[in-house]
Design brief:
binds adenosine-5'-triphosphate; nucleotide-binding; kinase; Alpha-Beta Plaits; four-stranded antiparallel sheet; ATP-binding; 2 domains; binds (3R,4S,5R)-3,4,5-trihydroxycyclohex-1-ENE-1-carboxylic acid
Length: 314
């Protein structure tokens, strides 16, 4: 019983650590999971290809919760391999959890889709009565199970349903992380430049009190995002949370004349700049020059609106 799936990394519009409301958008970087279920055991053993000594508790918990919910409590093995760097602010834990839950569904022979989720991308074709496709598991349910696993594994502060929804569904997802509720989802088509400094920052270690202090700015970012002004929202978010978490704001200042929006992603350290095709001033090639002089890596990518999938391709 082998199953495979992949889920997206994501960038931040609004960090939820101040108010519990967050927003993130799917990036064209993937984490893939392969799950092999064994009905003869309930033990799960995980491996992270890029980090053989990495903590596998999250992905092991994802398999256990998924077989408990949709299978017969089978154990087995799970392996992730990823283009999303760990602890870099690009939502590696959300991508790993989503890919693992979906790969477990795939191994159980379940169909996964968006039936019955009005906010999800293909819900219009979801009703069997009207000729749509019936599914066994919705992607949002799978996403919520991964968030539960992340809370139980202690790798998140709020549950990070914003990151998980963007990783699972693609597009910009605005969420209430207290209730694991998707408030809004919007497709976006941006070019993206990501600068990842050499250091790493685990979300679970972030200074939550400092983040709470910038709650009035988070409310402003929420208002901008709710109006669909995502690029301005992310720039305000980046300035506020860089200040709260002690990150340099110079990369953002360098980006502002050359990007439609720029933000510290998650709890850092990556900084993500986006270029909207309709913005005549955005020029990520020009931004790559000053950012390229900084230590660390530069990555060019785009947004994705399709999200996570089972099997080997979307
Ligand atoms: N590719 C992966 N495969 C398996 N587990 C992972 C993977 N990435 C992250 N994890 C799990 O999630 C934990 C937290 O990782 P990390 O801090 O990177 O997640 P994050 O909160 O999404 O942060 P960031 O947004 O900075 O990437 C890791 O210790 C590990 O247990
Ligand atoms: O652990 C968490 O709850 C979070 C971590 C960061 O990625 C944030 O960007 C996100 O909004 C919430």
């Amino acid at each position: 019983m082998e199953g495979r799936a992949a889920a997206l990394g994501a960038g931040t519009v609004l960090n939820a650590l101040a108010t519990g409301t967050g927003a993130a958008f799917g990036l064209d970087v993937e984490t893939r999971a392969t799950v092999d279920l064994d009905p003869g055991t309930d033990a799960v053993e995980g491996t992270i290809a890029e980090d053989p000594d990495g903590d596998t508790a999250l992905i092991e918990r994802c398999v256990a919760l998924a077989t408990e919910r949709w299978g017969d409590g089978e154990g087995g093995t799970v392996r992730t391999d990823s283009d999303v760097p760990l602890a870099a602010g690009l939502k590696s834990s959300s991508a790993a959890a989503n890919a693992t839950v979906l790969a477990t569904c795939d191994a159980l022979g379940l169909t996964v889709g968006d039936a019955g989720d009005p906010a999800a991308p293909d819900s219009a074709a979801s009703d069997p009565e009207t000729g749509g496709t019936a599914v066994d598991v919705t992607r949002l349910d799978a996403c919520r199970l991964g968030v539960r696993a992340a809370r139980e594994a202690g790798v998140t502060v709020t549950g990070a349903f914003d990151d998980a929804a963007a990783s699972m569904l693609g597009g910009v997802c605005l969420t209430d992380n207290g209730e694991d509720r998707l408030r809004a989802r919007d497709p976006v088509d941006w070019d993206v430049l990501v600068w990842t400094p050499p250091e790493r920052a685990y979300s679970a270690d972030a200074d939550v009190e400092r983040c709470a202090a910038v709650a009035p700015m988070a409310d402003l970012v929420d208002d901008l995002a709710a109006d669909g002004r995502y690029t301005e929202a992310m720039t305000v978010n980046g300035l506020a949370f860089s200040a709260a978490l002690g990150f340099d704001t110079d990369p953002a200042v360098e980006a502002m004349p050359r990007a439609s929006g720029v933000s510290l992603s998650g709890t850092g350290p990556s900084v993500v700049a986006v270029a909207d095709a309709a913005d005549p001033d955005a020029d990520l090639d020009a931004l790559a020059e000053p950012w390229g002089d900084r230590p660390g890596t530069l990555r060019r990518t785009t947004t994705r609106n399709d999200g996570a999938y089972t099997g080997d391709s979307p």
